[in-house]
């Protein structure tokens, strides 16, 4: 046993002894990963074509219901195969390890690093409203390093930091909601259904709006990346995914309601920064700074969640593939240090080169593709392996998986038609993982043999 391996053993003992991640912390990770900047920027483009309070709230409610349909399927797979790493684990078990590697390759390299860089850059931009003299790049790099240091300090410190930052995030959002409804000037908008709402709901703008709403709900599967570190994962995972998604659904609907309640639609239409517009309408001149500070605090918890769960994919891949073994090693405090440092380096490179937006364009289709086949894997396993133990069975099966598959397929179609070059390029990047998989699976044989000889 090497010195690094020796550092892994005490953590394993503590983990199996029942000191893993609690349902509360796992729920906080789900909430933190889901609530980024999407809900604060989408409404301005939605009200241009859907000028109806009821239809807008229905749009966000439908997005939440589709996310819940995904939650039920992922919970079944997570309870069946309670191992960290999300789609890498699920696709490998439901189909073939090579398929799992494709998903893991995207997630471990840029799938989390690019959103981390984007959230950090957003943090820097919003922080300018509070500290206008500071450039956003140093602020973005600083927050990523700060969160990474917390993650390197160990799971106990990560859990405390994640819980506190997420609770603060939710408290600030609730305070904003209360202020909006109490202090804000009511606008002439109704949230009750009207005759014209059905036409809005079945319209093309509603379908396009749903695509971007679903992006705002992405992250509902966050806890599946840390299943192996959870207490009683068969029970804890479904609870964390369900509770986190329901909390975000309520907050999203309420936020859009307060934006519409306190701000004229004419002021919101076409605006990217609807939260600042609404903040100015509610709080006056200080509104922009208040909202900017609120979003900054929220982004810290989002970055923390992604810097926590992302390295777990590389860690699990390192457990399976000897060529990546270094990433599987944990510190004495349970942190996959090399995997965290790897994601930190990639996120910093993306920030320095300002290429994270291009990377996000490339990987959007690939991530949807992996989610689609993960949920399809629930149906496949029900047919091909009906006798496998299922501690949790997807609620509403087969309708809930089918709803998720239909909506996800429509989103992939939208990306293929609207961004064909980026979508197909992303698929090529993912498929290149097959070559890497073949090389990694072939190389370790000799390495393992020589190690055994020693």
From TrEMBL:
The chain crosses the membrane at residues 21-45, 57-77, 98-123, 135-155, 167-186, 206-228, 240-262, 282-309, 337-356, 362-383, 395-415, 421-440. GO terms for cellular component: membrane. It is a multi-pass membrane protein. Coiled coil: none annotated. Its main location: membrane. One of its GO terms (molecular function) is L-amino acid transmembrane transporter activity. It comes from the Bacteria. Keywords: Membrane, Transmembrane, Transmembrane helix. It is found in: Membrane. Pfam families: AA_permease_2 (PF13520). This is APC family permease. It comes from Bradyrhizobium cytisi.
């Amino acid at each position: 046993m090497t010195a690094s391996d020796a550092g892994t053993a005490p953590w394993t003992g503590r983990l199996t002894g029942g000191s893993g991640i609690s349902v509360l912390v796992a729920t906080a990770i789900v909430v933190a990963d889901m609530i980024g900047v999407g809900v604060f920027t989408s409404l301005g483009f939605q009200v241009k074509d859907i000028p109806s309070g009821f239809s807008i709230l229905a749009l966000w409610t439908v997005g939440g219901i589709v996310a819940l349909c995904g939650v039920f399927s992922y919970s079944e797979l997570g309870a069946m195969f309670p191992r960290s790493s999300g789609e890498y684990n699920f696709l490998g078990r439901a189909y073939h390890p090579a398929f799992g590697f494709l998903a893991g390759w995207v997630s471990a390299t840029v799938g989390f690093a690019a959103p981390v860089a984007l959230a950090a850059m957003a943090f820097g931009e919003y922080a300018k409203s509070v500290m206008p003299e500071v450039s956003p790049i140093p602020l973005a790099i600083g927050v990523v390093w700060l969160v990474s240091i917390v993650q390197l300090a160990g799971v106990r410190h990560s859990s405390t930091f994640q819980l506190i930052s997420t609770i603060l995030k939710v408290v600030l959002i609730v305070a904003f909601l209360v202020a909006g409804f109490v202090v804000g000037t009511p606008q002439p908008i109704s949230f009750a259904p009207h005759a014209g709402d059905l036409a809005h709901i079945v319209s093309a703008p509603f379908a396009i709006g749903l695509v971007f709403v679903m992006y705002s709900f992405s992250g509902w599967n966050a806890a599946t990346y840390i299943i192996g570190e959870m207490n009683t994962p068969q029970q804890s995972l479904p609870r964390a995914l369900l509770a986190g998604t329901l909390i975000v659904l309520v907050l999203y609907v309420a936020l859009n309601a307060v934006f519409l309640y306190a701000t004229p639609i004419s002021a919101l239409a076409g605006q990217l920064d609807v939260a600042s517009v609404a903040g100015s309408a509610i709080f006056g001149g200080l509104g922009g700074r208040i909202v900017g500070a609120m979003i900054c605090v929220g982004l810290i918890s989002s970055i923390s969640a992604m810097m926590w769960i992302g390295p777990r994919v590389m860690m699990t891949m390192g457990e399976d593939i000897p060529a990546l073994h270094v990433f599987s090693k944990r510190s004495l405090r349970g942190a996959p240090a090399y995997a965290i440092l790897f994601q930190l380096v990639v996120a910093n490179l993306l920030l320095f080169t300002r290429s994270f937006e291009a990377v996000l364009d490339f990987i959007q289709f690939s991530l949807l593709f992996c989610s689609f086949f993960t949920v399809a894997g629930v149906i496949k396993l029900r047919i091909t392996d009906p006798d496998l133990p299922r501690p949790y069975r997807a609620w509403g099966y087969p309708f809930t998986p089918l709803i998720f598959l239909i909506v996800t397929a429509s989103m992939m179609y939208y990306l293929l038609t609207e961004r064909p070059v980026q979508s197909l390029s992303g698929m090529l990047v993912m498929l290149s993982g097959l070559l890497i998989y073949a090389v990694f699976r072939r190389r370790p044989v000799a390495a393992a043999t020589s190690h055994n000889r020693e």
